[in-house]
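Quick one - first record:
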Amino acid sequence: MISVVCSNALNRAVLEFGLREPGEILDKTRELVLTTFAKSDKDVKDGMDISLCAFDKRNKLIT
């Protein structure tokens, strides 16, 4: 369940909000996930770790 919500939030952060920086994407994803679960009447006690990296057009890791 959390994986699906997080995946949807990641997609929204990039496609809907147009974010491109990994830190900004993760911040928005966290915000969207928290908002989604705040709307739920169930108490969610699970968690999830996530990391994200970006590559340039030459497949070099952006630092």
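second record:
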Amino acid sequence: MHRVSDLFWICVFVVGFALRAQADQPDKPNFIIIYCDNLGYGDVEPFGSKLNRTPNLNRMEMEGRRFEQFYVTAGVCTPSRASIMTGCYAQRVGMHMNERDGWVLRPISPFGLNPDETTIAEVLKTVGYRTGIIGKWHLGDQKPFLPMEQGFDYFYGIPYSDDMTKEVGATMGEKFDGKHWPPLPVMLNDQVVKSGVDRNLLTQDYTQKAVDFIIEAKDEPFFLYLPQAMPGSTTKPFASAAFKGKSKSGPWGDSVEELDWSTGEVMKTLEKLGITGRTLVIFTSDNGSPMGEDMDGLERGTNKPLHGRGYTTSEGGFRVPTIMWWPGVIAPGTVCRELATTMDLLPTFAAMAGARVDGSKQIDGHDIRPLVFGKTGAKTPYEVFYYYDQDQLQAIRRGPWKLFIPLDDFKTHPHFTKGGSTSPLLFNLEEDISSRNNLAAENPKIVHEMMMWAQKGRKDLGDVNVKGAGQRAPGKIDNPVPVKM
């Protein structure tokens, strides 16, 4: 009887907290996005890891809100980052692929995020925010595309992936102009301040710069975008001496545990400054782990219990571990099981900050404050969610259902190794988190309905050799040059 009574009062507390939260939200709260690189769904303790120690994320979970169905819009770096910046599918803003670089931007690319697009930083600056990015940009390394031209007051970090080094460029051939790639550059605003970097120290370096930024900006509303370099795109992740060789799952685990430490340093700084009550911290990843050749191994992380690797349209590629922490505003120890995405952060932050989103250009994200604050009965705002591999629509999500579209051919596919398939694959993700049971034959009406939604997506966002009516062009310049000191 006591147990039933306790559960009743816990429920009353959580519901009451949610009802008060939005009303109690401070004007112009601070926003921090910690955006890991290739961190898998199962790489941290709040999402099931039994090996990697993540005490600070455990604390975030206990004091905040875990999002179990939070998605990115691509299984790889550049398009994923375009979506978090613009609130759009990468296909809408032309950042899903190009004829020179493929699906991610390489050094000395003529392409980048079009300056005509409105970024999350530009939206927040209209209402007085100080904006900073510390870490990996990867939306163009030429001056018109760099963060200082896209709404950021401060940039410290690398313009592309940490594995895009001079040594790697030498092996890439003429297509990517690899022989002219510079040593990995660290930039301060629009200038290179280091040429050639010890990648073992990137997490440590970014963390100190993030702490410094928060201290300097504490008296004004600020937005800090912290796209970490780790666990990273390489086969061997990096970590500083304090973490190297300390985890139970090798170098990948070392880097994950250092990311947890870094997150803890951010939280401690906010607490010391007394600004946790007006700061929303979001921890997430740009896509799932690529995983190793052995899908049961841990050398490149894990997305289990989800199916598939990063760099694909599998759940493991698109669904990422996400926790939101805002003491006193978000009810502690709560879970959101509704679908939300990185595209939602721009309109949600704008609504929280009292900023206006330019309505002249379509965005795909939604204001998800009801989900963030745990409003009773809040549901996902998405009628449908699209999974693209570069310019190819491969799957769609509607309610609990995920349909992989029959294709004559495909670029990459999480359920096939080559060729195509004339049969649809239909999974109920709420009952079958690992996508094991194809229910297409038993549900022909659902398959038909979802195929109609797929056609709508193609018309708007395009497909292979199909220009979508809602697509916009990426930025492009003539005669790009290497980023050098």
